[in-house]
DNA sequence: TATTGTTATACTCTATAACTATA
DNA sequence: TATAGTTATAGAGTATAACAATA
């Protein structure tokens, strides 16, 4: 029923997948520590990251991009505003909306995080042959794409009847 | 647009690293959803996972393995005990300690999670050429190892003088 | 004196629901 | 009527600190 390809033996999938989970855990931990060293959290650093890439943004857009509730965005921004990393200003045309921007300090923090980030990349991949790195990149790309596909609704309906209704 | 083999100057590290972070995020999300479907959380599922692998374990050992405080373990186990996944029993020789074991239900839950896990591995890696999978596995192994090394104290002493003393 | 697990307290991230101001 | 952001409330994960029972 399974046996997609691989032979009678044991597919290496579980082993690789386990490494993948391990990676997620240890990479998450690295992010937590790295951000904590500057008085941030992973969630707040993600906000700064998007503001750096997208420029001034409404809270609504942040809510969509981060996939969290508007209320959650309010909380994250309250923290980041209190720590001086972002400012809130009125939207020029829509008086309901708020534009969030990086402060100087917020920009400086992102720059430092980017620096560490690049150093980390170099340390992690240094010495890897080009061919391996290409293959790694290809497979990684596929895995991320498939995960996103599965997450976007096609995913693991293992027990559909038990799932709570979400289509109200 | 991409140019994987980009020029002498710019290593493709940042691009791959960005994918890696993306993977960590989306894989974490998949774990959150997958566990939530059975009334669990990622942290609680991790507890069940270790109990499955290690057998009955003291809370102290769980605290060490999970890298969280003993207080945190208490909270996680309170939840898992309330939901019927684990039991606490007195340690046979050390009357201070508590042995945590999986219940039948806890074991069944782990088995189901393992099943999904394997199906996920197949779906993610199906169609990947053996050579690519080997290279992927090799690089992934190295990356995880290096991350763990960096996390274990050798990591990013960006500003050593600012670090609080920990050797009191 | 050191260790195991607990209570007490607090902070962050997350969510839903109800509400205000605007569109 | 619909949208942007807020207050109110709640739950989970995490942490430190103080404490009890035991080693």
Walk me through this protein's architecture:
Chain A has 168 residues and is mainly alpha-helical. Helix content of chain A is 62%, strand content 7%. In chain A, strands 1-3-2 form a 3-stranded antiparallel beta sheet. In chain A, helix 2 crosses helix 5. Chain A starts with 12 loop residues before the first helix and ends in a 14-residue tail after the last helix. The interface between A and B is large, with 63 and 60 residues. Chain A binds a DNA duplex (23 and 23 nucleotides) through residues 41-44, 58-60, 63, 68-76, 79, 91, 94-98.
Question: What layout of secondary structure does this protein have?
Answer:
The structure is a homodimer of 168-residue chains.
Chain A: H1 13-36, H2 42-54, E1 57-58, H3 59-66, H4 70-82, E2 86-90, E3 98-102, H5 104-125, H6 130-154
Antiparallel strand pairs in A: 1-3, 2-3
Helix pairs in contact in A: 2-5, 3-4
The first copy, chain A, binds a DNA duplex (23 and 23 nucleotides) through residues 41-44, 58-60, 63, 68-76, 79, 91, 94-98.
A few lines on this structure:
The structure is a homodimer of 168-residue chains. Chain A is mainly alpha-helical and 168 residues long.
Catalogue the unreliable spans of chain A.
1-9, 155-168
| Sheet with most strands of chain A | 3 strands, antiparallel
Strand order of the largest sheet of chain A: 1-3-2
Distance between the termini of chain A: 35 Å
Q: Helix and strand string of chain A, N-terminal first?
A: HHEHHEEHH
Query: Largest inter-chain interface?
Result: A-B, 63 and 60 residues
Mean pLDDT across all residues of chain A, rounded? 86
Helix count of chain A equals: 6
Which oligomeric state applies? homodimer
Proportion of strand residues of chain A:
5-15%
Question: How many DSSP E strands of chain A?
Answer: 3
Helix and strand composition category of chain A = mainly alpha
